[in-house]
Automatic annotation (TrEMBL):
Transmembrane segments: 23-47, 67-83, 95-112, 132-163, 175-194
Boundaries of every Heme-copper oxidase subunit III family profile domain copy: 24-197
InterPro entries: Cyt_c/ubiquinol_Oxase_su3 (IPR024791), Cyt_c_oxidase-like_su3 (IPR000298), Cyt_c_oxidase_su3-like_sf (IPR035973), Cyt_c_oxidase_su3_a-hlx (IPR013833)
Topology in the lipid bilayer: Multi-pass membrane protein
Protein known as: Cytochrome c oxidase subunit 3
Family the entry assigns: Belongs to the cytochrome c oxidase subunit 3 family.
Top-level taxon of origin: Bacteria
Cellular compartments annotated: Cell membrane
Keywords: Cell membrane, Membrane, Transmembrane, Transmembrane helix
Main location: membrane
Length: 199
């Protein structure tokens, strides 16, 4: 009997009309991690300006894997928006489906990124470019993996019935982190893959 009561007890996520405490923590996390990526990309562009085309690898970064991978991550953000809207309406089945789709797409992104790393003609120790490439994409990969853990927890809680139209803040907070991961990748993709071809 106590186990049933425990499973049905609502999570401490604030009430209607109040901002859940988790929002402040997630906003602080996004701000600090955003600053980290800003510094990393600043380092990339600093070397790029200092050394020019000779600093970049030959051949230039290709879109064969990175292009589809970017589309996959954008779609995962859209499925997370759908999941969040479903959670706000108390439609736990659709919310769980949206979170599960985002999770699977995130896993596919990680798999393709690992394939791309394997295809590179350089490594993290071959040059300053290689060091920055693997550092930036590696940090992003770590954030994607952290996001997958968040999505896995949200999916389990949704399936256990912890959320309804009144209490769904964790889904929105987790969605914020996932969108942050996607926006960071768009910045990384533009910087590392697109700008070398714009010269």
């Amino acid at each position: 009997m106590s186990d049933t009561v425990h499973l049905q007890a609502p999570l401490p996520t604030g009430s209607v009309g109040k901002l859940a405490n988790g929002w402040f923590g997630m906003i602080a996390l996004v701000a600090t991690e955003g600053a980290l990526f800003a510094y990393l990309l600043f380092s990339y562009f600093y070397f790029d300006v200092q050394y020019g085309r000779s600093w970049l690898p030959d051949p230039l970064p290709a879109f064969r894997l990175s292009g589809p991978n970017t589309a996959i991550l954008v779609v995962s953000s859209l499925t997370m928006v759908w999941a969040e809207r479903a959670a706000r309406r108390g439609a736990n089945g659709r919310a769980a489906l949206g979170i599960a789709l985002s999770f699977v797409l995130g896993l596919v992104f990680v798999g393709i990124q690992l394939m791309e790393w394997k295809d590179k003609t350089f490594n993290y120790a071959s040059s300053s470019y290689g060091s920055l490439y693997f550092l930036i994409t590696g940090f992003h990969m770590a954030h994607v993996v952290a996001g997958l853990l968040v999505l896995a927890a949200l999916l389990a809680w949704t399936l256990l019935g912890y959320f309804d139209a009144r209490r769904h803040a964790p889904v929105s907070i987790g969605a914020l982190y996932w969108h942050f991961v996607d926006v960071v990748w768009l910045c990384v993709f533009f910087s590392l893959y697109v700008t070398p071809h714009l010269r």
